[in-house]
Amino acid sequence: MATPLTRDQMAWRAAQDLPDGAYVNLGLGMPVLAANYAPGDREIFYHSENGILGVGPVAQGAEIDPELVDAGSQRVTLRDGASVFDSAASFAMIRGGHIDITILGGFQVAGNGDLANWDAKVPNKGPLIGGAMDLAAGAKAVHVIMRHSTRDGGARLVTTCSYPLTAPACVKRVYTDLAVLDVDVGLAGGSFVAREIIPGLSREELTAATGAPLIFAPDCRELVAPELAEGT
Amino acid sequence: MIDKRVDDLQAALAGIGPGASIMISGFGNAGIPGNLLHGLSGMGLSGLTMILNAIRRLEESNPVFFAEGQIAHVITTAFRGPGQAPAAFERQWQDGKLTFEIVPQGTFAERIRAGGAGVPAFYTPTAAGTPLAEGREQRDFNDQTCVLETALTADVALLRAEKADRYGNLFFRGTQSNFGAAMATAARLTIVEVEEISDQTLPPAQVHLPGIYVQRVLQAARKD
């Protein structure tokens, strides 16, 4: 019986792909957990769209400054070499293609790389975009962390997104609780390529849980994550 | 002689009338002009247009804006309240008492920057291929589809900064500048509350926002 990855394990896996020297923007929710799990020997600058390049750990005690927050409104510290700037400059950094990787949450990703992550059509609630559209359109690489299936067992990896798009054809890689998958736009209509799959899950089971064409990389391997205490 | 300092909240907000369009700085709890918002909400105005990053926080800090139906229109990147039940602003929208325009955050910032910089419109790839681009003017540049966005200006901008001098030069702390730095350039009347008004003028290299963009400065301790 396969055990799906926890939120922190998914974030841990996404963090392993952040290279030394990268400038990275982490979305709210699971993506921001990745900062806890990047290998310590890599120097990574986290960008926060409200105006920080070089977000440090969450502030404790005397470090707390209510006028220094990240995009999730957490009171944070700054790392060595950090800088602060205004929102227009921050989004010029994003739109201008200077951010190497953004990790975002998702409702749906299509085989052609389309991303839907801002409007789940909840009744009686207004829309919330924030910086998601700018990040999806502007970052050099868009990685997504999301569960492989909805609570009802529906597919989130789909042929065509049914939710409103955040940006078309932007996603390169998806980390789910079952697998690591790349988007391959080279195949007709787009497909997912499984790079890693959790132990105990068969290829047939992963294919059944995926609502778009799925192929397995020749070197597809086991996705083994360490035991991790759940973050917040 | 130039002296942009004002003595009290009333003097800071004088002249703002019904139907005004108002840009409000702030992201999270940083750069929020809490004193000015408190004063404004007590003026009992109607028909206001609020231009700000997220409307949710305004309802939490100043519910009277909504309880008294002072706001007619909102331009924002986040028109969603917490939880599953609708917030007051979501109910007013559903009841047809309040309208809104939703804008991606980078486009929001750039439209305000353009408004202050005399650029009437610009093309951006953000939102191309999404429902926000439907019915909008679009054009391809370098094989990338872009959406035409127009500049945003306003009657008033409300900001918070750490320090000012009598010329209206501003120094921001932490992530305080966020949208305020651009908003100050795009409004006809920019009002700033600061922790400290320096008797000495700010050193030129420490001026984050030149006083040319600022009309009034009020000293006031931070208010959430």
Q: What is Rg of chain B?
A: 18 Å
Task: Considering residues with a beta carbon less than 8 A from a beta carbon on another chain, report the largest interface and each chain's count.
Answer: A-B, 45 and 51 residues
N-C termini distance of chain A: 27 Å
Question: Can you name the CATH architecture of chain A?
Answer: 3-Layer(aba) Sandwich
Low-confidence stretches of chain A at least 5 residues in length (pLDDT < 50)? none
Order of helices and strands of chain A: HEHEEEHEEEHEEEEEHE
Which keywords apply here?
heterodimer, A: 232 residues, alpha/beta, Glutaconate Coenzyme A-transferase, 10-stranded mixed beta sheet, 5 helices, 29% strand, B: 224 residues, 3-stranded antiparallel beta sheet
Explained architecture:
The complex is a heterodimer of chains A (about 230) and B (about 220). Chain A has one domain (about 5-175): Glutaconate Coenzyme A-transferase (3-Layer(aba) Sandwich). Chain A is of the alpha/beta class and about 230 residues long. The model of chain A has no long low-confidence stretch (mean pLDDT about 95). Chain A has a 10-stranded mixed beta sheet with strand order 4-3-2-1-5-8-10-11-12-13. A 3-stranded mixed beta sheet of chain A has the order 7-6-9, with no helix packed on it. Chain A is built from 5 helices and 13 strands. Chain B has about 220 residues and is of the alpha/beta class. Chain B has 7 helices and 11 strands. In chain B, strand 1 (about 20-25), helix 2 (about 35-40) and strand 2 (about 50) form a beta-alpha-beta unit. At the A-B interface, helix 3 and helix 4 of A face helix 5, helix 6 and helix 7 of B.
